[in-house]
């Protein structure tokens, strides 16, 4: 197609076409409105392709130089906002190619030798996503660092640990935060793994069957910093599993943010009163003057739905497609772009938000005292005195029942009363009935004892060192 023909695509694609596209169909089929953000990847891919074409003697050195010159100008035009994106040219690829031909003539028309938009777009999306994965990786590290710092400061702060949202056992607030560090570190691992499969080169697959030109695909892969080439042309132009895999990893990361958000919202509610969030992450109410709402975590929870929705969208997009490329695949971009934008913004905001958490240790401790959180410690105490665990469990259940009836904590029951549940109970029981005693006792690898929390903080710091 000549540049003239490209420009007049609204009239007809080629000599084969005898009627123009309606405005509506043009709008419906175009992707330039959203895929122009792939422009850097598109230019990088084209330059690597052109360099290889020249090295293989498929185009002349003069053509290669002209393509480089033209692309440099196009880059400048796009960066300055002067580039004239045309809907009639459908997508980012045709827009850039048409402008190149306008600028450098026949050399521009030679660029597409041995290439199709099918392998071109698959390459562009992979290059773009690879760089975005790297940016997200950096943000995940920053978020982990922020959490580790708050965890370190709160290693000794006692929070009621919940199961079934019922008070279960006391835990260190630092330990609780480090649970999220583990989640985010696995998210980073998953993304790094998905990156390996994303960073492979489709170019050279052409439309679907490969090409008759003597291309050096490995060379292009090296130029683009890719880890290898896709080994089957049909697969290379048609599958988007790398995008789906990324999207699944992104969904999990958002789910982790969402769980954390849910806790922040609960903790900030008056019924818990465990934390406060910095004002800059909250909003007020237009009617209730006393309100301060945790909007940011609520929105993060909400946006998780949207990212998970995109994953479903991409899976559904793929499921009915026969080999090889189908235009359906143009629909991969908006969900993928929105997933990246949403995840990046969310992580950026949370890096800041975490540092602004105001911890209220007295409220946390009071709540831990209310729920008989040291009952398991009393049972463990009896086991150490020789009782089988099941009998100890039963004895403590009776003790808790009496404490509830009297409206007091286990530690408030007099020794004589405690001894009615089991005569083995002695004065030393009060050391294990305290929250702090309970915490310190869980000094096992991965446990909540402050000593363990500190050891984990040190491990994370070493792992996350710049
Ligand atoms: N805009 C298209 C996409 O996003 C580019 C590839 C089009 N290829 C084609 N044969 N129509 O998938």
Please give a structural write-up.
With 466 residues, the chain is mostly helical. The chain folds into 3 domains: 3-113, Orthogonal Bundle (Fumarase C, Chain B, domain 1); 118-162 and 171-365, Fumarase/aspartase (Central domain) (Fumarase C, Chain A, domain 2), CATH 1.20.200; 370-463, Fumarase/aspartase (C-terminal domain) (Ribonucleotide Reductase Protein R1, domain 1), CATH 1.10.40.30. It has 21 helices and 6 strands. The chain has helices at 3-7, 23-29, 32-35, 39-55, 61-80, 92-104, 106-110, 117-153, 173-198, 217-223, 233-238, 241-268, 295-319, 333-355, 361-370, 375-384, 389-406, 415-421, 429-433, 435-441, 450-463; strands spanning 158-163, 166-172, 200-201, 228-229, 275-277, 357-359. The strands form 3 sheets. A two-stranded antiparallel ribbon has the order 1-2. Strands 3-4 form a two-stranded parallel ribbon. Strands 5-6 form a two-stranded antiparallel sheet. Strand 3 (200-201), helix 10 and strand 4 (228-229) form a beta-alpha-beta unit. Helix 9 runs antiparallel to helix 12 (241-268), helix 9 packs parallel to helix 21 and helix 16 (375-384) packs across helix 17 (389-406). It is elongated and about 100 Å long. The structure holds arginine. Arginine (ARG) is lined by residues 31, 35, 91, 117-118, 121, 325, 327, 329-330. The site of arginine has 10 residues, from helix 8.
């Amino acid at each position: 197609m000549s540049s003239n023909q490209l420009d007049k695509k609204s009239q007809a694609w080629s000599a084969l076409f005898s009627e123009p596209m309606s405005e509506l169909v043009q709008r419906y089929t175009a992707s330039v409105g959203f895929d122009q953000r792939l422009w850097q990847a598109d230019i990088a891919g084209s330059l690597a392709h052109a360099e290889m074409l020249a090295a293989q003697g498929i185009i002349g050195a003069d053509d290669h130089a002209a393509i480089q010159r033209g692309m440099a100008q196009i880059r400048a035009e796009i960066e300055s906002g002067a580039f004239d994106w045309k809907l009639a040219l459908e997508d980012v690829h045709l827009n850039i190619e048409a402008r190149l031909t306008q600028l450098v003539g026949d050399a521009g028309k030679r660029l597409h030798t041995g290439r199709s938009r099918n392998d071109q777009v698959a390459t562009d999306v992979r290059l773009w996503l690879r760089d975005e994965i790297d940016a997200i990786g950096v943000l995940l590290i920053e978020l982990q660092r922020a959490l580790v710092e708050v965890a370190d400061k709160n290693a000794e702060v006692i929070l009621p640990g919940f199961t079934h949202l019922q008070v279960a056992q006391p835990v260190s607030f630092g330990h609780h935060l480090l649970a999220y560090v583990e989640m985010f570190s696995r998210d980073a691992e998953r993304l790094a793994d998905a990156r390996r499969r994303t960073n492979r080169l489709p170019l050279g697959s052409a439309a679907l069957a490969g090409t008759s030109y003597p291309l050096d695909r490995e060379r292009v892969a090296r130029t683009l910093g890719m880890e290898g080439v896709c080994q089957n042309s049909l697969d290379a132009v048609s599958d988007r599993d790398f995008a789906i895999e990324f999207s699944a990893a992104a969904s999990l990361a958002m789910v982790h943010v969402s769980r954390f958000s849910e806790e922040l919202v609960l903790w900030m509610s008056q019924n818990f009163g465990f934390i406060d969030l910095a004002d800059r992450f909250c909003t007020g109410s237009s009617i209730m003057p006393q309100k301060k709402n945790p909007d940011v975590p609520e929105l993060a929870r909400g946006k998780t739905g949207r990212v998970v929705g995109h994953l479903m969208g991409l899976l559904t997009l793929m499921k009915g497609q026969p080999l090889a490329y189908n235009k359906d695949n143009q629909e991969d971009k908006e969900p993928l772009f929105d997933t990246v934008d949403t995840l990046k913004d969310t992580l950026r905001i949370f890096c800041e938000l975490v540092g602004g958490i105001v911890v209220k240790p007295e409220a946390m401790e009071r709540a831990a005292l209310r729920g008989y959180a040291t009952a398991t410690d009393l049972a463990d105490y009896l086991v150490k005195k020789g009782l089988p665990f099941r009998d100890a469990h039963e004895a403590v259940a009776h003790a808790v029942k009496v404490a509830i009836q009297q409206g007091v904590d286990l530690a408030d029951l007099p020794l004589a009363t405690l001894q009615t549940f089991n005569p083995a109970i002695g004065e030393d029981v009060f050391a294990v009935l305290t929250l702090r005693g309970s915490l310190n006792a869980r000094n096992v690898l991965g446990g909540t004892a402050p000593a363990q929390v500190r050891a984990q903080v040190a491990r994370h710091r070493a792992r996350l060192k710049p």
